[in-house]
Amino acid sequence: MKASLSSHPEGRGMLPRSLWPLAVFTALSLAGYGTFALAPQRIPSSMPAVMRFYQMSFEVSAQAHIVVALLTALFALRRAAGWRWLRALLATSGLAFLSEWVGTGYGLPFGPYRYTGLLGPRIGGRVPWSIPISWFLMALPSFLLARHAFRRRGRALRLVAGAALLTIWDLALDPAMSHLIPYWVWGEPGPYYGMPLVNLVGWMLTGLVLMMVLERLGAADWGTALPPQWLRGYYTLILAMPVGMLALAGVWGAVAATGLALVLWAVSALPERAAQAVLPSESAA
Questions:
Q1: What is the pLDDT of residues 244-272, one digit of tens each?
Q2: 3-state class of 189 per DSSP?
Q3: Range with lowest mean pLDDT among 93-102, 227-236, 242-251, 273-282
Q4: CA dist., res. 236 & res. 101, Å (int)
Q5: 268: part of which helix (H) or strand (E)?
Q6: What is the distance between the alpha carbons of residues 29 and 87, in angstroms, rounded to a whole number?
Q7: What is the mean pLDDT of residues 120-149?
Q8: CB burial readout 126-152, b (16+ within 10 A) else e
Q9: Where are the beta strands (DSSP E) in the chain?
Q10: Given Cys at both, which of 42, 211, 229, 272 links 159, Cβ 3.0 to 4.6 Å?
């Protein structure tokens, strides 16, 4: 039987040690973005090799971020839950690929869009290999954090809360990855930094399907080995990449929208936390 990460020393403190590589990668990537991507004139013309690396960095860093995040999650999952999560990885990534395949071909459920070549090779010429994996990487912590935050609520509410937490990620992701850098391009630009609002509906619908699949595949059981502190740290670090890009570029509207959505999500869980705080005294009585 695998032990929970919360029983290990890395489960205590400000940030679990298993998240340090992801934290360092995120910090270095944001430093590079703020230093050179927003001011490429800082690269000396006498250093063509550096300029070539800078031009490649948009493709390399995005894919490397997903790889580092994937390895971080797999290390923690393998250590805490054995291989019980593997079916969930395959199922959620497969369903995410299907939704992206339909989306890039028919504009449903996200609206018409297409991926550029900056996220690496595309499966079937349409969906980058990294996209389905990235859905799993944020769907799982969203699902588990919702279960922790709404433990005493009904199953349906927990699934909706998980889908909402996943969708909040896109409030920062889309402005950073389509408005600042064209990792994908919208066929019909919308009001939110070029993103059509129907995209958020598509995220909620896709998120609900992924939450139901995770529930069905037992994530509520084996996922409890990952403590809330680790889950919050992991979710925050992945969210920090697009939020950091937006802040460095001065896109404060998207930063504010993401922050407000997170605050509202957390506030909605306050009654649950209050009930849990009262529970021990009720038991003692």
A1: 999 999 999 999 999 999 999 999 988 76
A2: coil
A3: 273-282
A4: 28
A5: helix 252-268
A6: 31
A7: 96
A8: bbbebbbbbbbbbbbbbbbbbbbbbee
A9: 113-115, 122-123, 127-128, 184-186
A10: 211
Contact 126, 104 (CB under 8 A): yes
3-state secondary structure of 227: coil
In the structure, how many helices (H) and strands (E) does the chain have?
10, 4
Distance of alpha carbon 238 from alpha carbon 139, whole angstroms? 12
Residues 14 and 117: their CA atoms lie apart, in Å, by: 37
Q: Name the one residue in this structure whose structure tokens are 């971080």.
A: 72
Q: What are phi and psi of 43, to 5 degrees?
A: -80, 120
What gap in Å lies between CA 115 and CA 117, rounded to an integer?
7
**Pairing verdict, β 127-128 and 113-115:** unpaired
Render pLDDT for 16-39 as a digit per residue (tens, 0 to 9). 999 999 999 999 999 999 988 888
